[in-house]
Amino acid sequence: MSSVTGRTSFEGMYHAIAKSECITQFSTLFCQPIKKDYKAMRDINTDREHDDIREKVRDGYARIADSKTSCCGPSSCCGGPAAGDIARAVGYVSEELAEIPDGANMGLSCGNPTALASLQPGDTVLDLGAGGGFDVFIAARKVGESGHAIGVDMTPEMVSRARQNNRSFRQSSGLDNVEFRLGEIEHLPVADASIDVVISNCVINLSPEKAQVWREIARVLKPGGRACISDLALLRPLPESVRQSIEALVGCIAGAVLIDETRALIQSAGLTIVKIETKSDYMKSMSDWSDPLYQEIARKLPSGYRPDDYVTSLSIIAENSRKKTRHATVKRAIR
Ligand SMILES: C[S@@+](CC[C@H](N)C(=O)[O-])C[C@H]1O[C@@H](n2cnc3c(N)ncnc32)[C@H](O)[C@@H]1O
Q1: Are 207 and 288 in contact (CB under 8 A)?
Q2: Which residues lie closer than 8 Å to 256 by C-beta, 6 or more apart?
Q3: Spacing of C-alpha 132 from chain mean position
Q4: Whose CA is nearest to atom 11 of ligand 1?
Q5: Strands, E assignment, 186-255
Q6: Is the pTM of this model over 0.85?
Q7: Which atom of ligand 1 has the smallest separation from the CA of 110?
Q8: Tens of pLDDT along 173-209?
């Protein structure tokens, strides 16, 4: 839909109509409703494009959830490394992997947000794009029975799988502090100022509305709460051929943005960046693996370049440094 001017063809058409009407009518009164209609229709159009992207991502992850493998992403199937190897490559330790339900780790992570989070007993943790519940179960052990670990995911098949995993987690751990909610990270099904720590692992890059995701994080965090996020980010803009690939989108690469852009999104949402650090090991280790997506992306790059020249894993800690207000205290008292 985009043209050389950077406008969608729809936007261009509407500008042309608005301009000609303004010239012939010489009436600002007449132009106002047109401008308003244009904005309303442009918003509808953008919403539709965002929903289309979410639909493609949802389809990709529904297939992954149903197939119990992750062929569409950096994967544990098709000759790629096992999910446990991916997890160990990004710093998970064997003991914590042994304590989560079978199948909760689907090899879809690109970092280790619970290691950044310094979780305390009693904390309420929210995992954005929880998948099979991998980090939710690790967090649940750390926050203990006085804490609460909530996973949100927009793919119903993933949520079903996570809830199944939770049944075996309850039995093996004796903990009943985990919950999975169906929802979009752009519109979190979570109350204002109710979360101590937001975590997320390789998900925000998939969102077509990253600014809205960061605003939602700021909304749900308690004053003094923090976001500990692992994600993929770009070191330089991707070639168009990779950006257009649905496989690369579902595989967390085509939707990634530059590190400076991520920084700006966090700050615009009103959060304070405590730490933002690139972790090149994840992509570097991928280059030794025969993952089909990795091979496909490598083929589309200019000669002499590898995916890790473009993409890096990023660890982010950001804080809600707003002070407790009377308003926030009253809201908590009501809940
Ligand atoms: C790469 S997987 C990561 C899963 C999990 N965090 C892990 O490390 O195993 C991405 C997950 O995010 C979910 N997801 C993607 N975009 C989302 C959105 N806009 N809102 C909610 N969930 C989303 C997908 O359904 C999928 O389960």
Answers
A1: no
A2: 205, 231, 232, 233, 234, 238, 311
A3: 15
A4: 129
A5: 195-201, 221-234
A6: no
A7: 8
A8: 999 999 999 999 999 999 999 999 999 999 999 999 9
